Write the structure tokens for this entry.
Amino acid sequence: MAYLGDLYGREGLSTALGYPDTNYVNGVITGYTTLGTKNATRFGERLNLGANWLNEPHQELWDGEGTAPASGIPDRLSAAIDSLEPEDIDLILLLARRLAIKRGAD
């Protein structure tokens, strides 16, 4: 779901899946809500990915560290991200999760 959220944007993904806001998608991406097999099947069909796409791993979409590839990120930002210390990355991820939750509540 995180890959699809990056690809479509959370609002675009929510709209494509038939949700009026991003609350559910934010919850699934941040791990506060589970996707479930039925929703995974329905979402795969709605996005023309195939019924089982979200029920299967897609290692080719992830780098060796378990994070989404930097495609779509400008080179200058990608270089800045690469220069961050691990503890700084952890803080940024925590902030991003909190912002996603706050945006979902607005």
